[in-house]
Amino acid sequence: MRFPVANRYVPLLATAFVLAALYGAGCISFNNFSSLRVAVNLVGDNGFLGVAAIGATFVIISGGIDLSVGSVVAFTSILIASLVEDHGVKPLAAIAVALMIGALFGGAMGGLIQWFDLPPFLVTLAGMFLARGVGFMIYPQSHGIQNDFFIQTVTDRLAVRLNDRVSFPFTGTCFVAVLVLGTFVAHYTRFGRYVYALGGDEQSARLMGLPVARTKVFIYALSGFCSALAGVVYTFYTQSGDPASCVGLELDAIAAVVIGGTLLSGGVGFLAGTVMGVLILGLIQTLITFKGDLNSWWTRIVAGMLVFLFILLQNLVSSASKRLGAKS
Amino acid sequence: MTTERFENKRVRWWSSLVWPVSGLALLLLFDLCFTDGFFKLEVRDGHLYGVLIDILNHGSKVMLLALGMALVIATGGVDLSVGAVMAIAGAVAARLINAANPSFTVAIFGALAVSILAGSWNGLLVGAFQIQPIVATLILMVAGRGIAMLITDGQIITFTDPRLTYLGNGHLLGMPFPVWLSAAMLLFTAVLTRRTALGLFIESVGDNQAASSYAGVNAATVKFFVYVFSGFCAGLAGLVAASNIKCADSNHAGLFLELDAILAVVVGGTLLTGGRFYLVGAIVGALFIQALTTTMYMRNVSADVAPVPKALAILIVCLLQSPAARKRLSGLVKRRNT
Q1: Quick one: pLDDT at residue B338?
Q2: B162 touches chain A (CB under 8 A)
Q3: pLDDT at B2
C-alpha cells in the first residue's frame, strides 16, 4: 500500500509533461504556434494514426503485438477507392464492407495466434505482407476519389466550425470518438478487464476462468477493425486510396503507445497515454515544419530518443515499485 | 537441458533441416516443372550465370543477416534494427570513400565499426538494462534511418571506387563475391559457436536464463555479444547492399530485410522462444525466401503483389512447425478414423 496509484500514473504524467513542454516550447519559439489552427491541424492530421494507435494499445496491453496496422490502412483505403469509383458502390456501404473485412482479418490472425499457438509477431507479420499484396491486387497505384460524399460531405459538411476561419475536420472527430469509445471499452466493460488481466498474466487469467481464447481473438479483431477504421479516416484525409501508403505506420503506432506509458510486456497502459503519444509525434513533426531548416528525418531520431527515455523511465518505475513491494 | 539432448545432438543436427530443405526442394521441383530456364547455367567470361546463381547472390544479404539473427533469436530475443543498421553502414562507407583522400580500408572498417557500435547499443539495452529485445531494438529501428540520413545529409551518395563496388558485384572463381562472403561468414559463425563453448552459452541463456546464470553463465555478456554480432552481420550486409547499387540510399537500403531475416531463421527451424539455433537452417531459410521471390519474378508476378505468396508461405511453414497445429491436425485425423 505505498503509492500504488502514483506509480501507475507516473509514466502517464511524464508523457503529459513532455507534451506540454513541447507545446510550450513551440509557443515560445514561433509566432502563431499557439493559434487554434495549429492545434486543430495537429489533431486532424494525426487522426488516422491516432485511431490505429488506439487499436494497437489494446493489443499491446494484452501482451501481444500487431504489425499489420499500416498495411491494413493502405488496403482499406484502396478497397474503398476501388469500390466507390470503379464498382459504383455507395460510399457508406463501401466503408461498412471495409470495416467488416478489417475486423474479420484481425479475427483470423487472432484465431491463428490462439488456436495454433503461433507467435503474434510472426502471424501479424504474415498479415502485413498479405494485406499489402492484396491491396496492390485490387488496384496497383494511387486512386483518387471523385465521389461527392468524400469531396463535399466529409470535408465540408461534417467539419465542425469553431470560428469563421478554423473548423475542426471530420478526421479529428473520428479520432476523438474512437478515443471516447475505446476508453469506455477499456475501463467500463468486462472485455476491457479481460484485456488487462490477459496482459498481466495469461496463466492466471485462465485459472481465474476468464474466457482467454475468445478475448484474444476479439482483441485482434478489434485491432483489425481499428486499423480499417484508420484506413477510412485516411481515405477521408487524402480523398484517395493508395496501396503503397502508410509503410511503417505500425512502428509509429507502437512508438506512440510506448511513449504513452504502456508497457510492451502487457498489463499496464492507458488509451489517454497513447493519444498523448500520438500528439507528441505530431508535435515534433509540426515543430520541425515550423523550424523550416531542420530536415524531416529528425522526426525519427527524436521519436527514437523519446521511446528510449520512456522505456528507461518505465524500468525505473517498475524496479522502484518492486523494491517498495519487497520492503513492505 | 537433459543428457538425452546431448546424445541426440548429431541426429538432431540434420533432422532439424528436414522441413526447410524439403520446402526448398518442393519449390525447386515446382520451378523445374513449370518455370522455363530456371535451372539454366552458363559460363560467360569465366563467370557463372543463371537463375540459381542469382538466388545465391541476391540471397546473400538475408543470409548474412540471418546468421546474426539466429544467434539473437537463440537467446530468446529479436533484432529489429538490422535493416536500419544496414542503411547506416552503407551511408558511412559511401561517405568515407568520397572523403578528401579516400581509403578503401578506412571505409570498410569505419562502416563495420559503426555497425558494431550500433549492435553494442542494442546489446547494452538488452543485456545491461534488461529491456525487452523488441522494444530495445525498436529504438534503433525507428531512429536508425534518421541517423543514416544525417550521415548522408539526406542525399543518395554514389561512389565509383572499384574495390567497394567489387564487394557486391565482383566475381571470385566464377562465383559472385557476396556468395563467398556469406559462405565464409557461415563457416566463421559455425566454428565460433560450435567449436567453442559460446554456442552452448547462447542456447543455455535462451533456454533458461535463471538456470544458466546459476551455472555460472553471464547472461548479460552473452546477450551483449549476440547483438554486437548481429550488428556486425548487418554491417556486412549493408556494405553488400550499398555496393550492389553503387550508392548509399538511406531510405531504402535494407528496408524490411529485418523481417526477411527473422523469417529465414524461423523457416530454418529456430523457434522464436529461443534455446536453440540452426545456422545451416537459417541459410536454407534465406535461400527459400529468395527462391520464392525469384520464382515470382520469373512468373511475371508483379513485385507489389509478391508479398501475398510470401505471407502464405510463412503461415504454412509456421503451422507445420507449431506443435499445437500438429496436435490439432493429428487429432482431426484420429477423430475421422474412429
Answers
A1: 55
A2: no
A3: 43
- B304 part of contact set with chain A, CB < 8 Å: yes
CB contact under 8 A, B318 and A140: no
Contact A77, A240 (CB under 8 A): yes
Cell of A250: 505500425
ipTM surpasses 0.85: no
Half-sphere exposure of B330 (CA within 13 A, CB side): 7
d(CA A199, CA A191): 12
DSSP letter at B175 equals E
pLDDT tens-place string over residues A257-279: 988 988 877 888 899 999 999 99
Query: Residue B47: beta bridge partners?
Result: B44
**In whole angstroms, what is the distance from residue A305 CA to residue A310 CA?**
9
What domains appear along chain A, each with residue ranges and CATH number?
A: 4-327 (1.10.3470)
- Nearest residue, CB atoms, B149 vs list A132, A265, A297: A297
Instruction: Identify the CA nearest to B63 among candidates B297, B321, B290.
Output: B290
Domain ranges of chain B: 14-300
Q: What is the CA radius of gyration of chain B?
A: 21
Q: How many residue pairs bridge chain A and chain B with CB atoms within 8 Å of each other?
A: 126
Give the up-direction half-sphere exposure of residue B39: CA atoms within 13 A in the CB hemisphere: 8
- For residues B126-153, one letter each, b for 16 or more C-beta atoms within 10 angstroms of the residue's C-beta and e for the rest, the string is bbeeebbbbbbbbbbbbbbbbbbbbbbe
DSSP state of B161: -
Q: Which residues of A touch B309 (CB under 8 A)?
A: 133
Q: Which three cell numbers stand for residue A225?
A: 477493425
**CA B315 from chain center: how many Å?**
19
- The full DSSP string for B54-66 is HHHHHTHHHHHHH
Nearest residue, CB atoms, A126 vs list B305, B314, B325: B314
The per-residue pLDDT for A328 is: 45
Question: pLDDT per residue over A287-324, tens digit each?
Answer: 888 887 777 678 778 888 888 888 887 777 777 766 66
* Closest approach of A166 to chain B, Cα-based (Å): 34
Return the higher-pLDDT residue of A225 and B300. A225
- Is beta strand B41-44 parallel, antiparallel or unpaired with respect to A240-241? unpaired
Contact (CB, 8 A) for B222 and B202:
yes
Residues lower than pLDDT 70 in chain B: 1-15, 334-338
**Are the beta carbons of A175 and A274 closer than 8 angstroms?**
no
Q: Do B150 and A297 touch (CB under 8 A)?
A: yes
pLDDT in tens, A49-78: 999 999 999 999 999 989 899 999 999 999
**Residue A71 contacts residue A135 (beta carbons within 8 Å):** yes
CB–CB of B229/B157 below 8 Å? no
pLDDT, tens digit, for every residue of B72-115?
A: 999 989 998 999 999 999 999 999 988 877 788 899 999 999 99
Q: Residue A304 is nearest to which of B139, B310, B325, comparing CB atoms?
A: B139
What CATH number matches the domain at B14-300, 1.10.3470, 3.40.50, 3.30.450, 1.20.58? 1.10.3470
- What is the reported pTM? 0.84
Q: Which residues of B touch A134 (CB under 8 A)?
A: 308
Close Cβ partners of B225 (under 8 Å, ≥ 6 residues apart): B123, B198
Q: Look up residue B125 and give its DSSP letter.
A: I
